[in-house]
Predict the structure of Glycogen synthase.
Amino acid sequence: MKVLFAAWEMDPYFKVGGLGDVVRSLPNALSQLGVDVRVIMPFYKSLKLEGSLKKRVAKTEVLYGKKLQKVIIYKVINSLAKVPVYLVQNKKYLDVATSQETFAFFDKAVVDIIKNKVINFIPDIIHCHDHHTGLIPFLIKNSNLKVKSVLTLHNLAYQGFSPVDVLAKLSINRSDMRLSKWEINSRKLNFLLEGIIHADIVTTVSPTYSKEILKEMYGMGLEDVLRDYRHKLYGILNGIDIDYNYLLHFKHVPFPFLEPDEKDRAMKHYPVAEGKKLNKQFLQQQLGLKNDETIPLFAFIGRFDAKQKGIDILHKMIRRYALKNEQYQFVILGTGDPDWEERFDWLYNFYPESVSCNFVFDTKLAQIIYAAADFILIPSKFEPCGLIQMLAMAFGTLPIAHKVGGLTDSIKNRVNGYLFPEYSAKKLFETMEKAVKIWQKDKINHFKMIKAAMKEDFSWRRSAGEYLDLYKKLIAR
C-alpha cells in the first residue's frame, strides 16, 4: 500500500503547531506497519534542513493563472522524520506561507505531480491535513485520477478562505464545484469545506470530537455540512511519539524517574514518588516559589488563547478561589495574547511565592514542569485532541481537564486523571479540591492513579493501526 501525506508543515523541517508533530510521527508509525508512506510539503525559504540528506529528483511546470510556473522537487530524509519527504519549490508562491494562494498553488502542484508521474511514486491514497490541502480531494477527482483521498480535520477553528476567483487560476469551472450558498454570497472559497465535501473519507483527531462537530457549539459553521457527510466521518485519537517527545529530552529533568531505554542505561533513575518530589523541590527553588512539598503544585502549559485554551476560567479560578489562603502553587508556561499575559503577570506580582509566570516557548522548562508538577490543568473550551495530557501522564502528572473532545477520550475520571463537566472557574476549582483531598489523604489511591496514567498506551502505533484499517476499507471499495 502506498500513501502520500500532503501537509503544509512537518517537524523538524517547518513547525508551527501540533500538526507538524503529527505529520512527523504518524507516517513513521505507518511505515513500521509495512505501509510505503511518503510526505509532500512546500519548500519554504525558512525550512530547517540541518542533518538532512537532500537530493533534487525532478522538475516540472504547473499551469496556474494561465501561466506555467516552474517547480522543482527535492527529496529529503532525516533521522527524526524517517520517511522520505518531497519538497515542492516555486519561488513565486511557495517561498513563504503568506496566504491561501500559497496553498491553492501547492494543492494544484501536488495533483499535477501525481497526474504527470513527475516523481517515482504513485500513491493509492493521498492523506490531506487541514484546510491547507483542502482542495486536493476535488482536484484529484477533477483529474480522473484513481487515487483515494483522506482529509483529517485537526481543528475546525481554522478553515482557510480565499476569493472565489482563485478557481479560475486553478482552471476550475465554478459550475464543477458544489459551492455552498455562503461561498456564493460571500464570493469566498472555504478550502476546508471543499475538502469535507470531496474527500472519500474525513477523519478527526479523536472520536469525541467527531461527534461534537456535528453540533452548532463545536461545528464552527460547518455542522450542517458535516451532518450531511457523517457517513464518511471517523474519529481516531492522536498519539505521542514517546521517544521524540520525552525520552529524547529527559536529560533536561534533574531527577529522572522513568524506566530508562537502552541508550540511557547509564542514567540514574529514581522511584516515581521520590523523583517527582525531588523535581518539585528543584522547580520551586528555580522559579522562586515557596519551597514546600506539602503545597500542591499545579501547572498550565499552552497557548494564551481564551477562545480555545480556557485561560479565562483559569485566571478567574486562581484569582477568585485558589489564592485566598495561598495553599496552592501555580506554574504557567506559554505565549499568546499580550493582554492575558499581563493579567497573569499581575497575579505573579501579588503572589510571587505562589505563582510563576513564564511567557516563553521553552522545551527544557516544559520537561521539568511535566516531571515536577502534581497536577496539570487543561481547562480548554474545546479540544480536538490535546497532547499535553498524554505527555503529562507519561511523567506521572495527573491531568485535571474540561470534559471535551480528545480529553474525554484519553482521560478516565478518577482513574488516570480528573474531568470537570462544566466550563466554569468554579467547577474547575471544585475538581481541583477533590484531587488535592485524595493527594493529601489517600496516597495509595493517588499513586494508583499515577501508575495507571504512566501505563497508558498513547503510542502512534495504536493510532496508525486504526488508520491502516481505514485505508484498507477505502481501497477495497
